[in-house]
Design a protein that fits this description.
single chain; mainly alpha
Length: 249
């Protein structure tokens, strides 16, 4: 059994591999193998920023829930990918453009029909989404700014989930819980002696454990971002943009 911070981190794959979004773009035909599954996974992961966009655009909670469901129903059923161009190939940009087009062109038609058309292609916890929206007072930001911030925070959340899963898989869930509060702390604020006590390890081992946790989180954050773009160059640019959005507070 390894001591905290002494085991090697799992081998990190290259930053840019074949990502879900690149699979979708390479196979614009929804019937292409793997394309629909990749798109569904991305939609399941990043739907909340769109819900927040619709809510902050002035729609009621009930309408926002149904509009978000209907938008994804049409996204998965129709050839929306035809509007994606190389300079607008980021999944973040594609979703926002497609949603705006849907709201502008389909709102009246959709409202005249049975709400949602009875279709629920993806299972979203829309009740929890509204609770979250209210707690965040998300309606204080313009819809576009809110969308960008929620997108960036969702990327962070996904990276954290992946990190926690890695530690749990390796039987180090307790270590993760002890280290997690210090993931974003400045180096001068990290209580290594307290961490060492919590981990029943030396202070030196605690320092190594914190360093490896932070390093692995950065790697997973970059991989999470890369999964929403189509090229390595876009991944680097998207990382810079996401960090800029997060720095706005």
């Amino acid at each position: 059994m390894s001591t905290p911070g002494t085991a090697d981190s799992p081998a990190s794959p290259p930053l840019f591999v074949t990502t879900r979004w690149s699979v979708v773009l390479a196979a614009r035909d929804p019937a292409a193998p793997g394309s629909r599954e990749a798109l569904e996974t991305l939609c399941q992961t990043y739907w909340y920023p769109l819900y927040a966009f619709v809510r902050s655009s002035g729609h009621t909670p009930e309408d926002a829930q149904d509009l978000t469901q209907e938008f994804f129903a049409r996204l998965l059923a129709k050839d929306y990918l035809r509007v994606v161009t190389p300079e607008k190939g980021r999944f973040r940009t594609f979703l926002r453009m497609a949603l705006k087009r849907f709201l502008a062109n389909e709102w009246d038609r959709w409202r005249a029909q049975k709400r949602g058309g009875g279709r629920t292609p993806l299972a979203f916890d829309t009740n929890l989404a509204e609770t979250r929206f209210q707690q965040e007072r998300a309606d204080t930001l313009p819809p576009d700014h809110l969308y960008e911030r929620r997108w960036a925070l969702t990327l962070l959340d996904q990276a954290m989930v992946r990190l926690e899963r890695e530690y749990a898989t390796r039987g180090r869930g307790a270590e993760f819980l002890a280290l997690k509060p210090h993931l974003t702390a400045s180096h001068g604020e990290i209580p290594y002696a307290e961490i060492a006590t919590a981990l029943a390890a030396t202070e030196g081992a605690a320092r190594v454990a914190v360093h490896r946790l932070r390093k692995r989180f950065r790697e997973l954050f970059r991989q999470t971002i890369a999964d929403t773009v189509a090229t390595p160059e876009e991944a680097d640019a998207e990382l810079r943009y996401v960090l800029e959005v997060l720095s706005r507070g």
